[in-house]
Specification:
With about 475 residues, the chain is an alpha/beta fold. The chain is built from 16 helices and 16 strands. About 40% of the residues lie in helices and about 15% in strands. The protein has a seven-stranded mixed sheet with strand order 2-1-3-4-5-6-7, with helices on one face. A seven-stranded mixed sheet has the order 8-9-12-13-14-15-16. A two-stranded antiparallel ribbon has the order 10-11. Helix 9 links the parallel strand 13 and strand 14.
Length: about 475
C-alpha cells in the first residue's frame, strides 16, 4: 500500500489551513491556533482510496527537524505533502531539502494560496527544483485525486484542475476553472489522525475543532485573496451536514468547542437560523460553545439572539478601520457607523467580540490611523488584533503596492508581522510599526481592560492563567 505523509513542517506556528490570512500565530496578539483541517480533509479522502496516511503538525507539537527525520525514517513515505504559507515559504523549502537528503526519490507536494494559478515570476523567485506538485485553492477536493493519479495513472493528471506538475522538467499549469458545488460530498476531516488536544479554545481551555461551513465571498476587499481562491459565489454546506459534524465531534472525540470557518458565517440569515435551530432542538443545546465571524452589515437582532441560544460565545468582526475614506478605498463595503451599530448589538446580548483592524494601506496618513485608534478604544471589544496590511499575491492590494509604490519589493517570506511593505505614501515603515505597538500596548494595559478581564464573574482559574499566558505573549512580541 502506498504511504503518504501529510505535515505542517517544523518552524514558526502559522495558520497554515487559512489560505485567506495565513496568520503568524506566534507573532500575533490574541489569535489562537486552529486545527489542521486541510490535512484532515486530505487524509479522509486518501483513506477512501485505500492509501495509507501519516499526519503531523510539527510546530503545534513543538517538534523540530530531528523529530521529522525520525518519522521519515520510521514511516518511509512515498509522498510528502506540505501545507505552506507566504510568510513561511523559505523555511518550508529548506525543510524540503532536508527531506530530499533523507530520500532523494521521495515525491514532494506543496499546497498554499501562493500557488493558485501561479504566474511565471513565481517560478523565477522560488527554487522549486525539489518539488513535484503545487496545489492552490481548495486542496481537499484536489489532492486525493491527484495523488491517486500520480500513483496509478499519470494520464489522469491532465484532467485535474488547480495543480501544477512537472512534465519532462517543465511545469504544466492546470488552472482552476470551476469550483466544487456540492460541499456535502466531502468527508469530514479525519480527526482520528489529528492531535486534537493541541488546538485549544483560550476561553474554555478545552480542545476546539474547526468546522468549515461555506466557501466563497462576494465582497471585493482589496487585501483579501478569498474571492480569488474560492470564488465570489458563496457555496454552502447544508445546515444538516454541519450539525452532523458537530455531533460527530462531540460523540466520537469529546470536542465541545468549535470555530466555524467561513469567509462570512452570517452572510445568509436563513442558513444561520437553520443551523441554530438544529442545535437548539438537539442534545447539543447548552453543551457546545462556538465562535464565528461576521461582517458588520450582515447581522440583525433576531440572528444574534438565536446564535447565542445555540451556543455562540464570540463573534469575530472585520472592523478594519475608523476612517470611512479608508473603508471605501479598501472596498470593504461597510461604514464606521455600521461598525459601531454591530458592536452595540452584539454587546447587548452579552457575546464577546474579537475586533480585527488593519493599518498601513498605501493612501493612509497619520489622520487615518488616529481615526482607527479612536474607534478601537471607543468600541472597546474583548479582544483585538491590529495588523499592518499585507499585499498577498493575487490580491488587488498586491498590484497596487508593487506596481505603483514600492517598485517590486519582494513579498515572499513576509506576513502581517514580518512587515512586507515600505510604509505608506505618507508614513515610513518604522513609524507604522511604532503606531501598532503603541496602540496595542495602551489598549491592553488600561486599568479598565485588566479589571474587566480579571474580575469577570465568569472567570475560571484556567481562564485566568490563559489571560496571563496571552499577556506574556503580547509583551514578548512587542518588545
Amino acid at each position: 500500500m502506498a504511504k503518504v505523509m501529510l505535515i505542517y513542517p517544523p518552524g514558526e506556528i502559522y495558520q497554515r489551513g487559512e489560505d485567506r490570512c495565513q496568520i503568524n500565530v506566534q507573532a500575533s496578539v490574541s489569535n489562537a491556533l486552529r486545527a489542521c483541517n486541510d490535512l484532515g480533509y486530505i487524509a479522509a479522502g486518501l483513506k477512501k482510496k485505500e492509501i495509507e496516511v501519516f499526519l503531523r503538525d510539527y510546530p503545534a507539537e513543538n517538534l523540530n527537524l530531528d523529530n521529522l527525520k525520525i518519522d521519515m525514517i520510521s514511516y518511509h513515505p512515498d509522498i510528502v505533502f506540505i501545507s505552506i504559507t507566504n510568510g513561511s515559504i523559505f523555511n518550508d523549502l529548506e525543510i524540503v531539502k532536508k527531506i530530499k537528503d533523507i530520500d532523494p526519490k521521495i515525491v514532494i507536494i506543496l499546497k498554499g494560496a501562493l500557488f493558485f494559478n501561479p504566474q511565471d515570476d513565481l517560478f523565477k523567485e522560488l527554487d522549486l527544483s525539489d518539488i513535484d506538485y503545487l496545489v492552490g485553492g481548495e486542496s481537499e477536493f484536489i489532492v486525493p485525486d491527484m495523488i491517486y493519479a500520480h500513483l496509478y495513472n499519470k494520464e489522469l493528471l491532465k484532467n485535474i484542475q488547480g495543480i501544477c506538475y512537472k512534465n519532462q522538467g517543465d511545469w504544466i499549469n492546470n488552472k482552476l476553472n470551476t469550483f466544487v458545488e456540492d460541499l456535502d460530498s466531502i468527508p469530514f476531516p479525519d480527526r482520528s489522525l489529528m492531535n486534537n488536544k493541541l488546538y485549544i479554545n483560550p476561553q474554555t481551555n478545552r480542545p476546539m475543532a474547526t468546522i468549515a461551513t461555506s466557501r466563497g465571498c462576494p465582497s471585493s476587499c482589496i487585501y483579501c485573496v478569498s474571492p480569488v481562491i474560492s470564488g465570489k459565489k458563496v457555496r454552502y454546506r447544508s445546515a444538516e451536514s454541519v450539525f452532523n459534524e458537530l455531533t460527530d465531534c462531540v460523540n466520537n472525540y469529546n470536542i465541545k468547542d468549535f470555530f466555524f470557518k467561513s469567509d462570512t458565517f452570517t452572510i445568509n440569515k436563513k442558513w444561520v437560523l437553520d443551523l441554530c435551530n438544529y442545535i437548539i432542538a438537539s442534545p447539543l443545546k447548552d453543551k457546545i460553545n462556538w465562535v464565528a465571524n461576521s461582517r458588520v452589515n450582515t447581522i440583525d437582532e433576531e440572528m444574534i439572539k438565536k446564535m447565542k441560544q445555540a451556543g455562540c460565545s464570540v463573534i469575530a468582526l472585520g472592523l478594519e478601520s475608523g476612517s470611512d475614506e479608508s473603508l471605501k478605498l479598501m472596498k470593504k463595503g461597510t461604514t464606521v457607523e455600521e461598525n459601531k451599530k454591530a458592536v452595540k448589538l452584539i454587546k447587548k446580548y452579552g457575546l464577546k467580540i474579537f475586533g480585527f483592524y488593519l493599518i498601513g494601506f498605501p493612501w493612509e496618513t497619520k489622520e487615518h490611523i488616529e481615526q482607527t485608534k479612536k474607534l478601537i478604544f471607543e468600541l472597546d471589544t474583548d479582544f483585538i488584533e491590529l495588523s499592518i496590511a499585507t499585499p498577498f499575491k493575487g490580491s488587488e492590494l498586491y498590484s497596487m503596492v508593487f506596481d505603483n509604490l514600492n517598485g517590486g519589493e519582494k513579498i515572499l517570506g513576509k506576513d502581517s508581522f514580518k512587515y512586507s511593505t515600505m510604509g505608506t505614501k505618507f508614513i515610513k515603515q518604522d513609524e507604522l510599526e511604532k503606531y501598532r505597538k503603541d496602540i496595542i500596548l495602551k489598549y491592553h494595559l488600561r486599568a479598565s481592560y485588566i479589571f474587566k478581564k480579571i474580575f469577570n464573574k465568569n472567570i475560571t482559574l484556567s481562564l485566568f492563567f490563559n489571560y496571563i499566558k496571552y499577556g506574556f505573549r503580547l509583551i514578548k512580541n512587542l518588545f
